Amino acid sequence: MLDLYSWATPNGHKVHIMLRECGLEHRLLPVDIGRGDQFQPPFSTLGPNRKIPLLVDTDGPDGQALTLFESGAILIYLAEKTGRFLAAQGAARHRTLQWLMFQMSAVGPVMGQSNHFRHGAPQALPYAIERFGNEVKRLHGVMDQHLASHAYFGGEEYSIADMAIFPWLRASEKHGILWPEHPRLRAWFETVHARPAVRQALTAFA
Predict the structure, then answer these.
(1) What is the enclosing helix (H) or strand (E) of 16?
(2) Is 169 a residue whose pLDDT tops 90?
(3) Of these four, 7, 36, 47, 122, which has the most CB atoms within 10 Å of its CB?
(4) What SUPFAM superfamilies does this protein's entry cite (predicted)?
(5) Both 78 and 97 in a single domain?
(6) Do 95 and 81 fall into the same domain?
């Protein structure tokens, strides 16, 4: 059995999407981060970073239970467990992992900071708002340019890289992004959003 401790956030949704796409039997266990559930047992005893999502696979490698935190690590694990959405070897695998790392190291952290300084900071800090806002725009430009010659981020096949990036871009307009300036990225977004598994996944904890 797969138990996913999660909430309705971009990092949570990327794993919700993977579970739905693979048709894996699982339980979604809510961790209301707005209420501080991540700091309370049982969740606080499971992972050292006390952040969602966190996966517990009672039938992990060699039949042993496995607990994983970090959404990117969970996506790779589920892809290898099922043999889906990540090539087993070759250039396609490395391209997919490249864009997964791009999301983990750039898109997620930058958009997270942009959101904080735009909507969560106790006082307006124009320098921070401008700095992270400009970087959000730059990253959208990088993605749009890549999609000029590729159907998906890993190449021509839908992959865990697309699942990782998609949930973050649902809030692009709140960061000052004008979709007409990124037509290829917008077309990709609509293609991913139209997938039945994606639509189902986005209802988690809604």
Answers:
(1) helix 10-22
(2) yes
(3) 7
(4) GST C-terminal domain-like (SSF47616), Thioredoxin-like (SSF52833)
(5) no
(6) no
